[in-house]
Design goal:
Blueprint lengths: L12 H4 L1 H28 L2 E9 L2 E8 H4 L2 H15 L5 H25 L4 H11 L6 E6 L2 H22 L29 H9 L8
Antiparallel strand pairs: 1-2, 1-3
Helix pairs in contact: 2-4, 2-7, 4-5, 4-7, 5-7
Length: 214
């Protein structure tokens, strides 16, 4: 006759080994970098990226342009990256790899767009033309801030999160998985024992169960 003890089952090497620890660390870093990078890129897109002076009737007019005026790509890709970071846990296998690749590409695209927009004066030229009423009017005394590079830094964090998801994402947990915290499948509930059937009583005793339910 077998008896069930209350001693917890020791974790296997797969659950506590270096690979598992790397997977947990990569998951924590990816979540932190992805969320922080999206927040930084969105914040930087709302700040002033450049300013200058336009010659209009009656004197000079100082104009400035926010990141969203120069390019809306970093902010848009930050939102896409944040959505992809969440979606990584909703898919598995090939789908997870594709979403992780999208996350990485969103970060790379945000970096490229922010760097290209750092020296872009077209948004200020458009404002100068509207203010003067002359389409040929351009901006003078052009200056740039560091905010485009802050947005690029946010995109770089998203890119790192995507690379981690591509490399380690297969070992990350999924939403709705029927597993305990240890990673083992949940045990099935034992069948009810009919006290009027002697064979059920003997089978329950052989499994180490109490057929009386006490």
């Amino acid at each position: 006759m077998e008896y069930v003890t209350a001693v917890p089952h020791p974790r296997t090497e797969a659950e506590t080994g270096p690979a598992a620890r790397r997977g947990r660390r990569s998951l924590a870093v990816a979540l932190l970098f992805g969320a922080l990078g999206a927040a930084v890129a969105l914040l930087a897109s709302r700040q002033e990226w450049c300013s200058g002076v336009a010659a209009v009737a009656g004197g000079d007019l100082k104009l400035s342009a926010k990141g969203s005026d120069v390019t809306g790509v970093p902010a848009a890709l930050a939102i896409v990256g944040l959505a992809a970071l969440v979606a990584v846990f909703a898919v598995r296998r090939a789908g997870r790899f594709l979403v992780a690749a999208l996350l990485a590409l969103s970060g790379a695209g945000a970096v490229a767009a922010a760097v290209l927009g750092a020296d872009d004066s077209s948004a200020l030229d458009d404002k100068a033309a509207q203010a003067s009423g002359n389409a040929a009017t351009t901006i003078d005394a052009l200056t740039h801030t560091a905010w485009p590079y802050v947005a690029a830094g946010g995109g770089a964090l998203i890119l790192i999160a995507g690379v981690l998801a591509v490399i380690y994402g297969a070992a990350w947990p999924s939403m709705g998985g029927r597993y305990e915290r240890s990673g083992a499948p949940r045990a099935r509930k034992p069948k009810a024992v009919d006290p009027d059937r002697p064979e059920d009583l003997w089978k329950a005793l052989d499994r180490g169960e109490d057929p009386t339910g006490a």
